[in-house]
Design brief:
Number of helices of chain A: 9
CATH topology of the largest domain in chain B: MetI-like fold
Shape of chain B: flat
Strand order of the largest sheet of chain A: 5-6-7-3-8-9
Bound molecules: adenosine-5'-diphosphate, magnesium ion
CATH superfamily of the largest domain in chain B: MetI-like
CATH architecture of the largest domain in chain B: Orthogonal Bundle
Distance between the termini of chain A: 39 Å
Helix content of chain B: over 70%
Largest sheet of chain A: 6 strands, mixed
Number of strands of chain B: 0
Radius of gyration of chain A: 18 Å
Order of helices and strands of chain A: EEEHEEHHHHEHEHEEHH
Number of helices of chain B: 10
Number of strands of chain A: 9
Oligomer: heterodimer
CATH superfamily of one domain in chain A: P-loop containing nucleotide triphosphate hydrolases
Shape of chain A: globular
Distance between the termini of chain B: 70 Å
CATH topology of one domain in chain A: Rossmann fold
Structural class of chain B: mainly alpha
Largest interface: A-B, 18 and 17 residues
Helix content of chain A: 25-40%
CATH class of one domain in chain A: Alpha Beta
CATH architecture of one domain in chain A: 3-Layer(aba) Sandwich
Strand content of chain B: under 5%
Chain lengths: 250, 223
């Protein structure tokens, strides 16, 4: 790996086997992530985006190819649904990962409490998930992922379950948290605007089996938060460029 | 604070609840009266279907000889206990099925057959096998509640939210952590509902022995 690369994927291939068929979901996918980078992966639905993240997060086995992660770098996975446990309060939800890894030290608990305080959830640590709004739940879900101190975040359509307005606000929110905590990110989304407004680089995938169609670096003058970036003059240019690349299977 | 509208809303709900209780009790009383009248006018055979008065008399008699409570209590205690034990065994077996999908697939058709049988109808069969003893009631209770619990609880286990399972896997949860931190607590509503069905079944299980006791006593008192 080159010196500031923290994750590198080479010739990744994934075949799903079922009784009735086999599906090649990912075919010859290669890319690398640098420290502090925010990469968005877009592509037509069903092309294999989630599969790539699932393999990285160890939820699925790859068929072939290699994945290298820089020594001592950890991954954290965040799904579209917040998947909070109704029977746990907010604090205990956030401590889930630490509990599973038997890392419930005083220091780690204080770290989580600090995150909850910093990100406006201090008054809710004893509440149960049903008392929180969709946006807040997603923030809790992010803190649950951050609790285990991952260096690279894998976000799979993290805002898709939210309505449009909340989605704008929450993506701004999450972006700020991620930047403040200095995490590197690979985010999968089908929302081009979301990808352009958040990422440093957008990877456009082909139809299934997916491979890389184009990598587009996003260069916005006076880059700011996602909502502000949407207003920039470069935004629509990128939107059009990516729109042309995407194979729509309507 | 409450607005007037809210107060009248609450009143309406309360009134409704009381009304429902009153009507439920009235239906029961009317049922007793009609039963008694039919018996009095000999429309129904009292040797088979008895009458409220006679049932009441027998209860009083048994009460005097102090037999009834003892009998009811022991039967109640033993059936409830065996239904509870059955629930625990059922949860345990459901856990094994969740743990090992292969076993689950093997026993699936048998479970479906067992579950589609009318459970109370198994009573007579077990009584024939084991004899009309206390044992047969306990065995029946155990058997029925185990089956009911397996079906209910296993259903809850396999319906665990796939996203929550993914989440647990992404934290590298071991199978026992997956079970105790996610699968078991998320199936809590199913466990409660199995317990509810089992407890009400244990009351149904009570009817034959208690009914039988009353019936026999009545027969003896005739001779
Ligand atoms: N567990 C699985 N078994 C079989 N096929 C699967 C499985 N998961 C996904 N697929 C198939 O792989 C393809 C890619 O799926 P996915 O990665 O979820 O797409 P995306 O996230 O881009 O919408 C789809 O055609 C899907 O049907
Ligand atoms: Mg997907």
């Amino acid at each position: 790996m080159k010196n500031n690369e923290i994750l590198s994927i080479k010739n990744l291939r994934k075949i799903y086997h079922t009784e009735t068929s086999e599906t090649v979901a990912v075919d010859d996918f290669s890319f690398s992530l640098s420290n502090g980078e925010f990469i968005a992966i877009v592509g037509p639905s069903g092309c294999g985006k989630s599969t790539i993240l699932s393999i990285l997060a160890n939820l699925e086995n790859k068929s072939s190819g290699s994945i290298k992660i820089k020594e001592n770098y950890k991954l954290g996975y965040m799904l579209q649904s917040d998947s909070l446990f109704e029977w746990r309060n907010i604090l205990d939800n956030c401590l889930l990962g630490l509990e599973i890894n038997k890392n419930l030290s005083k220091e780690n608990i204080n770290y989580v409490l600090g995150l909850l305080k910093t990100y406006g959830l201090k008054d809710f640590i004893n509440s149960h998930p049903s008392n929180l709004s969709g946006g807040m739940r997603q923030r809790v879900s992010l803190i649950r992922t951050l609790a285990t101190k991952p260096d690279i975040l894998l976000l799979d359509e993290p805002f898709s379950a939210l309505d449009y307005q909340t989605r704008l606000a929450v993506s701004d929110d999450v972006y700020r948290i991620i930047k403040k905590e200095k995490k590197s990110v690979i985010m999968v989304t089908h929302d081009l605007a979301e990808a352009i407004s958040m990422a440093d680089k957008v990877i456009v995938l082909s139809k299934r089996p997916c491979s890389i169609k184009k990598i587009i670096p996003i260069k916005i003058e006076n880059k700011s938060t996602p909502i502000e970036n949407r207003k920039s003059k470069e935004f629509s240019k990128y939107y059009e460029e990516i729109w042309k690349e995407i194979d729509l299977n309507v | 604070m409450c607005s007037n509208e809210h107060i009248s809303y609450l009143k309406k709900i309360r009134f409704n609840k009381i009304l429902i209780k009153l009507i439920q009790i009235s239906i029961f009383i009317i049922f007793l009266i009609v039963w008694q009248l039919l018996a009095d006018f000999k429309v129904i055979n009292t040797f088979v279907s008895s009458s409220p008065k006679e049932v009441f008399k027998t209860i009083i008699e048994l009460h005097k000889t102090n037999n009834l409570y003892n009998h009811i209590f022991i039967t109640l205690y033993e059936t409830v206990l065996s239904f509870l034990i059955g629930t625990l065994i059922g949860i345990f077996l459901a856990t094994i099925l969740w743990w090992n999908k292969f076993i689950a697939k093997v026993v699936d058709p048998y479970l479906t057959i067992l579950n589609s049988l009318p459970k109370v109808a198994l009573g007579p069969i077990i009584i024939i096998w084991v004899g009309a003893k206390m044992n047969s009631i306990i065995l029946m209770a155990l058997f029925i509640s185990t089956i009911i619990t397996i079906m209910n609880v296993y259903q809850g286990f396999i319906e665990t939210d796939i996203n929550k399972i993914k989440l647990m896997k992404s934290f590298n949860a071991k199978p026992y952590q997956m079970f105790f931190k996610l699968v078991l607590p998320s199936s809590f509503p199913n466990i409660i509902s199995a317990l509810k069905i089992n407890l009400s079944m244990s009351l149904v299980g009570l009817l034959p022995p208690v009914g039988e006791k009353i019936f026999f006593n009545k027969c003896y008192s005739r001779y």
